[in-house]
Amino acid sequence: MSNYRIKGETGEWEVVIGLEVHAQITTQAKLFSGAATAFGAEPNTQVSLVDAAMPGMLPVPNRECIRQAVRTGLAIEAEINQWSRFDRKNYFYADLPQGYQISQLYHPLVGEGSLTIEADEKAGIPEAKRIGIERIHVEQDAGKLMHDQHPSMSFVDLNRSGVALMEIVSRPDMRSPAEAGAYVRKLRSILRYVGSCDGNMEEGSMRADVNVSVRKPGEEFGTRTETKNVNSVRFVMAAIEYEAKRQIELIESGGTVVQETRLFDPDKGVTRSMRSKEDAHDYRYFPDPDLLPLVLDDAFVAECRASLPELPDAKRARYEGAGISAYAAGVLTAEVEAARWFDALLDTGAKPVAAANWVTSELFGALNRLGREISDSPVSPTQAAELLALVDDGTLSGSLAKQVFEKMLETGDTAGVIVERDGLRQTSDTGAIEAAVDEVLAANADKVEQYRAGKEALFGFFVGQTMKAMGGKANPKMVNEVIRAKLG
């Protein structure tokens, strides 16, 4: 259970959150036409006669859009409705040339499912929690109004008109901004693993409508507001926090929360009223007469299921089963590119725990420093495997491996080439190590006496001085053994 509460003048309040996530389906064409969907194209260059609602134009469903939506439903273990239907949602706006949106209200393609958000004590999520998903329906996007192109007129760009969207509707199961943030991140991760949406919130291919209400703990749900088109996890969390506090202040001052649509202003961190919330009957939904019901056969659903990759939860469990810590497994599976890179590293025979520790610390640290994504890593999984193998067989110590890795990043050379060229091989020559230890102990006779008198913390000093004397190339394990033997 979430322990998130907001303190008001009349006591503690609980926030109730549901999210409607719009995810643009990854296809080369729109839902009902063959027009392209590339981001950033010149206005009105990706518009077919169907998208522009020219008279007599009939929509034809894009099979790939339906397939991707079904695959997404299977990934959240949802019910797939093998009979579904498209409805017309009627409203009139300048960027909607048809005067209606083709959507699914009464008979969606995907029914109930769920996903689980992981426990995160630091974020205030004390235990893993299952978030119910009510439905996924497929619909077409509207166009876009551009208000900054002319001093007195708004321009219309229809490039997005007809783009295929999945609307993924959660149950009101979230009780804190942190839970909502974790839900969006997990859902985005699943979509990207499946390949049904690229999850790029900055480009608008994934955005959330945030439903928020407040209540005294244990009481009935309050009246909710819907904040539209929030396009980052951080903004989703900020919108919830602001809106919950606004509603509490309103109720405690004697006011009433009105069911309405609101917008989030990311610059000011506030929500603003947009319009009173329409009920479904205002849209005059009815079955689209131009489209037959969608009927999926068993073979189509089976093919969709067979095409799914290993999903984040299963991959995480596999990593933990190989001895990798829960934290590292979570980090490695959060983004599909990182998981694929790590799997390629494991495929070379690298030892899972050592590989996971190296990737999450050394590689991710370097990529962060360089401002690069793992898909653009200057070191390949094969090159990383060679470096890890040199550590495993004793050729390199941990500190030498760090030096070699830095040179790999700088030059693009492999670890083996760098070790031979720069003479960075670890020394396991007992005679050389003993000679260096003798010199260190002789030069620090006073500290040897202190150590033997009980100041055991000096042991690390002797190790450090020996490693320094040998240019960091001595085998640390052997150095420890020799010093311990000599100090008796």
TrEMBL record:
One MF annotation (Gene Ontology) recorded for this entry: ATP binding
Assigned keywords, A-Z: ATP-binding, Ligase, Nucleotide-binding, Protein biosynthesis, Transferase
Keyword tRNA processing part of the UniProt annotation: no
Record field: catalytic activity: L-glutamyl-tRNA(Gln) + L-glutamine + ATP + H2O = L-glutaminyl-tRNA(Gln) + L-glutamate + ADP + phosphate + H(+); L-aspartyl-tRNA(Asn) + L-glutamine + ATP + H2O = L-asparaginyl-tRNA(Asn) + L-glutamate + ADP + phosphate + 2 H(+)
InterPro entries: Asn/Gln-tRNA_amidoTrfase_suB/E, Asn/Gln-tRNA_Trfase_suB/E_cat, Asn/Gln_amidotransferase, Asn/Gln_tRNA_amidoTrase-B-like, GatB, GatB_C_1, GatB_Yqey_C_2, Gln-tRNA_amidoTrfase_suB_CS
PROSITE patterns: GATB
UniProt family annotation: Belongs to the GatB/GatE family. GatB subfamily.
Reported function: Allows the formation of correctly charged Asn-tRNA(Asn) or Gln-tRNA(Gln) through the transamidation of misacylated Asp-tRNA(Asn) or Glu-tRNA(Gln) in organisms which lack either or both of asparaginyl-tRNA or glutaminyl-tRNA synthetases. The reaction takes place in the presence of glutamine and ATP through an activated phospho-Asp-tRNA(Asn) or phospho-Glu-tRNA(Gln).
Official protein name in the record: Aspartyl/glutamyl-tRNA(Asn/Gln) amidotransferase subunit B
Species name: Sphingomonas lacunae
Organism placement in taxonomy: Bacteria, Pseudomonadati, Pseudomonadota, Alphaproteobacteria, Sphingomonadales
Name of the gene: gatB
